[in-house]
Amino acid sequence: MERSYDAGASAGARIRQLRTERGLSLSALAAVAGIGKGTLSELEGGRRNPTLETLYAVAGPLGVPLAALLEDHDGATVADEALTARRLHVTTADGTTTEVYLVQVAPGRTRRSPAHARGAHEQLVVLTGHCRLDVDGAVVELGPGEHHAWAADVPHSYTGGPAGFTGMDVIRTPC
Questions:
Q1: Predicted TM-score of the model (pTM)
Q2: Could you tell me if 99 and 127 lie in one domain?
Q3: Which residue ranges traverse the bilayer (predicted)?
């Protein structure tokens, strides 16, 4: 079962604000994000906690980094059955938001990420363990000390090796 982000009301309010600013209807955002209209309505109303999957699903269509939907402090953690991500730092400068996360992926588990906002770039540095990174069909195997950078505005996934992996994930998104 997927674990949820624990600050549903504040995340829902941010989603509603961003959706409204962009002139999107509830139905339009739900459709492009691939989630149910009822689910989105409950999130925005603070009656449901969003899963990490849902946050990723709406961040891309809203054109914002994941950090825009999370608690606004370093140390905030989001998790599901495959991935745990702890926000280490977020900064916005020169028209770009840079997010830095310490990520852990469980052994043999896969975290699929939909395309991030247009123009987003990501870099993963593996600290321990092994990772299988699939970026829009291109597979890269990474071990300790190895890294890969890619355009993150395409679907991608991380799979933990036999012992899982821990890494630093840096995401740069134009604002």
A1: 0.77
A2: yes
A3: none
